[in-house]
Amino acid sequence: MMKKLFYILCLLVFVACSDDDDKNEVMMSDFDKPFTSISKSELKGMLQDFWLIDTIIDDYFEGHRMDVVGPIEDALDKYDVDIEDFFTFNTLNSRSTAAPVENKFTGMKIAWNPATHALDTTIDADGFIEILIPYSQTDDSRNNLRIVINGEWSNYTMKEETKFYLDEQLIMTTERLYNEDRDGLSVYITENTPPYFYSYKAFENSQANFPTSEFIVRKEGGPSLLQSINLENGNLVLLTEYNNLRAHVTVNQYNNFLNLVNQLEGNNNKLALELWKKNMSAVIVFTDRDEKIGDLDVYPDEEDDNLPLICRFQDGEEFRLPLIFFSLYD
Fold first, then answer.
1. CB under 8 Å, gap of 24 or more: what pairs does 210-213 form?
2. I want to staple 158 with a disulfide (CB 3.0 to 4.6 A). Which of 178, 208, 278, 308 is the partner?
3. What is the bridge-based pairing of β-strands 245-251 and 280-286?
4. Residue 48 burial by Cβ neighbours in a 10 Å radius (0-12, 13-18, 19+)
5. Structural domain of residue 246, as residue ranges?
6. What single-letter DSSP state applies at residue 301?
7. Distance (Å, whole) CA 238 – CA 249
8. Strands 184-193 and 196-204
9. 329 within domain boundaries
10. How far lies 1's CA from each of 5, 66, 318, in Å?
């Protein structure tokens, strides 16, 4: 049961971002926001958005992204180009941020030659890697798929940007940034395939029980999803934000609390669940106004091993929510 509870809580994911243009403005805490005056019937309709979280993820990863990436991967396979080899070359040979003068970089141009049915490689003085191959699987007369890879490398940081052009039109941009220092390892990955944008951030510190992370998928003119997990002053902070709704959970002094719960797991699950509920604060709020929809809670259900989520309105009525969070155990 505790693992199922952790399923709900530990990646009740993903951090609410705000533009702090006025540094002197005091932001109201989600937990201090008053209840909204909007009717329950309207609120229940709004909360239905949480059932659409899987839809935006699937529409991107299984739909639009595959429509863009699939034919690119097919072309790379057809014309025998291993793009990861060029990522490695680029990373190891690009200009060093630590010694930009001493570490010179000469780029490469790889182009499909239909006459020889092979790849031609030449020096590219512009300092990046350029790959030119046909997009078509059956007609290799036009190198209309252009891939440009650029990167920077130092002792602790690797950064790569890759752009994909079809018939001279930019169809996808990806960035990968890795940084390692004494504080830990951080990773930042983005994909821009209009009208979708995707990003993933993670930071791993050996002192923490899990890496902090942030996940974003948004569609221009459509839905947006942001999920995150973080430690702030020893407290576990978990958020899921879909459009203008945010589910926000804080577990006080998480590391100390987790040790206590682990001792109870399997021996007294009911008490362990009560400890979770006593040590956490959880609400659902609007992101575009200082109003609360309701308090967020979990409750045991003998017929549902996933510990369902509920939103408790101001009058105490409970409204069932779907499982909208990721599992650490998948």
1. 210/10, 210/328, 213/11, 213/13
2. 178
3. antiparallel
4. exposed
5. 2-17+32-321
6. B
7. 5
8. antiparallel
9. no
10. 6, 36, 22
The closest of 204, 249, 220, 97 to 159, measured between CA atoms, is: 97
pLDDT tens digits for the chain (330 residues)?
A: 444 434 333 333 333 333 444 445 567 899 999 999 999 999 999 999 999 998 999 999 999 999 999 999 999 999 999 888 776 544 444 444 444 433 445 578 999 999 999 999 998 766 788 999 999 999 999 999 999 998 887 778 888 999 999 999 999 999 999 988 877 889 999 999 999 999 999 988 766 656 789 999 999 999 999 999 888 888 888 899 999 999 998 888 877 777 777 776 666 667 777 777 788 889 999 999 999 999 998 776 655 555 678 999 999 999 998 877 654 334
Residue 25 lies in a domain: no
Q: Is residue 26 part of a domain?
A: no
Residue 89 lies in a domain: yes
**H or E segment to which residue 321 belongs:** strand 318-321
The whole-angstrom separation of Cα 248 and Cα 267 is: 29
DSSP class per residue in 177-211: EEEEETTEEEEEEEEEETTEEEEEEEEE-TTSSS-
If you ran DSSP here, which 8-state letter would residue 87 be given?
A: H
Paired tokens of 325: 């969070």
Residues 6+ apart with CB under 8 A from 102: 96
Q: Are strands 292-298 and 157-166 parallel, antiparallel or unpaired?
A: unpaired
Closest CA to 181 of 152, 158, 160, 151: 158
Length of the chain: 330
Structural domains in the chain (count): 1
Decide: pTM greater than 0.85.
no
